[in-house]
Specification:
The complex is a heterodimer of chains A (about 45) and B (about 700). Chain A has about 45 residues and is mostly helical. Chain A has one domain. The longest helix of chain A has 25 residues. Chain A is rod-shaped, with a radius of gyration of 15 Å. The N and C termini of chain A lie far apart (about 40 Å). Chain B is of the alpha/beta class and about 700 residues long. Chain B folds into 3 domains: about 170 residues, P-loop containing nucleotide triphosphate hydrolases (Rossmann fold); about 80 residues, no CATH class; about 350 residues, no CATH class. Chain B contains 31 helices and 13 strands. In chain B, helix 21 crosses helix 27. The longest helix of chain B is centred in the middle third of the chain and has 42 residues. The chains are: A mainly alpha (about 45), B alpha/beta (about 700). At the A-B interface, helix 1 of A face helix 13, helix 17, helix 21 and helix 30 of B.
Amino acid sequence: MNDIIQNILVFTSVGIAVYFLLKKFVIPAKATKSCGHDDCGCH
Amino acid sequence: MSKQIKVALIGNPNTGKTSVFNSLTGLNQQVGNYPGITVERKAGVCKLPKGVKAHILDLPGTYSLNASSLDESVVIELLLNANDKDYPDVAVVVTDVENLKRNLLLFTQIKDLNIPSILVINMSDRMRKKGISLDIEHLEAELKTKVALTSTRKNEGIDLLKNLISNYKSLSTDACLDISQIESSYFGNLQRIFPNQQLYKLWLVITQDVNFGQVTKKKIDALSDFKVKSDTKLKRLQQKETIKRYQFINAVLKKGKTVDLNAATDLRIKLDRILTHKVWGYVIFFSLLMLIFQAIYDWAQYPMDFIDETFAALSELVKTTLPAGVFTDLIAEGIIPGLGGVVIFIPQIAFLFLFIAILEESGYMSRVVFLMDKLMRRFGLSGKSVVPLISGTACAIPAVMATRNIEGWKERLITILVTPFTTCSARLPVYLIIIALVIPEGSFLGLSYQALMLMFLYLLGFGMAVGSAYILHKVLKIRSKSFFLIEMPDYKVPQFKNVGITVVEKTKAFVFGAGQIILAISIILWFLASYGPGDDFNKAEEIVTENLSSLELSEEELNQRIASYQLEHSYIGIAGRSIEPVIQPLGYDWKIGIAIITSFAAREVFVGTLATIYSVESEEGEPIKEKMRGERNAKLGVPRYNLASGMSLLLFYAFAMQCMSTLAIVKRETNSWKWPMYQLVVMTSIAYLAALIAYQTLI
């Protein structure tokens, strides 16, 4: 049971991470957003 | 009955006008409001020689007769309306000796209204300190006026001013500027329609929409034989007027005011003379840089060690307390080491921004920009290119955007193209960890080799930017012109609050901006390193145990061999080994290759990636630096991170265009993929070549 839950959590985390990176770098954003007061979002 | 005259005291804000008013009137003042508006009206009485009584009106401070506020409108309304009960017999225009040029703009405008005007040059007590000398006779002759040199602080020149006021009838009412020079046909036509009106007053009626007597803007607009100009054209004529006035003022002050910086004893001028000196200026700047880099290393060492050990301990804690399984491994071997690879650099980045903020707050940074301007021009860059190049030390993105205020397209394009060479904060983690591994800990003249190396890398980036700019300047066939204007702020003690806010903002942007990407990449990397296809990965334990059965290995050694074999045959291992032929000549193995690829998202991901890869491979909770130090080049039998491979990596990161976001912003700013692609290809080629030469020479 523990193994199944841990595997689900791993695959969910990986899915979220891939989605986040795709959204940040591949899927074009509608509006330009900066990541801080005077920073750039490049980090 | 004694003779009474009306005096208007006019001047730019902060010229000491109110001090002159107080000196003239003493306690004989009345303070109220102008009718109908909440603008303060200050009036007072001053007794002049020969029993003359002057009613002095202290008008609101204004920069020119082109009103942009209610206060300024009050001044214009009064000066245009001869029927106003306060309309002055004489205008006393107060100026500040240090800002005479700017202050004289208003004086020439008032003179052009044919009002008898006296020029008060105030704060004369600062002249000696500032090395200023004035040719009063010349100024009086050219400005067709009388000058009172005053110092309200020392109560000097006030009696002279009183005398001048009482003799106002002897003052010339001639104008300084013939307004029709601006556009002869337009003003000729205006004068033809209103032959009895003063031309400059008519011009103010048109541009300021103020009235005098029977002439109103409405009336002028309604004239069938006078062509009304659009607001844009009127603005353009106003600009021409301002330019003409400054040309006149410049010509007057060329002989009328001289500043001898060598004679100056003022602290600001003294400091400026040294800090912007063509030799000492650079010596001081580079000495400061060296001190900063030294301090970054010395002061940040303890918190960095603490963070490193804390993250290593946290990984161990997670492993021992959470139930065993893949998700626990993901946290302990993927997420925590990955994030630790970023957090560890907070102290050094905070110190760097602390120093930059102090230099900016103190007013020194403006002197650096001014100093560097002289250098920049030799390389075909605009003076304004200095700002993007310096702000590029934080991040290339805002730096590229900061090029927008460079007027000339050629200079702007060159600045955009070379700015990514300057060492941004994202390179810092890569530099710091590699330097710590390959540069010895000794010192030279009290400065550690490691700090000197870091400074060398900063200078290398800046030098590369400037050198490339020179080549691009010669290669690009684009014609354009630019100029450089910077206002030098006064020196001041930096405000703790401002410095603190800057440091927190910048560090937060680094940690949270980078942190999100590194967290995501760490999770994916751990997954790719912990899973793999085929028997080589899934039956790694059996294969390694069988292959090494003849050797007498401890359990720990055997586990290490199994983990390495498994990693090599994981998804990431397969991908890494496929690019190994390309990166091997640079001294890198597949693990470094993977870190280079992932750091294309952001350079600092390099450290996080290696932290994750080495954590998957090693069961021990060692700090990342120790893991990297322990890595060996199996073929050569030397440490993986030695001087040759370390220098190769440092040079690669100094020159390579390893930032997707910078490419995107360059595309946006140049409106074409041509320039970012050019940057990517050229910079990566230079980086590869430099790394190759470094490794092959030093190995």
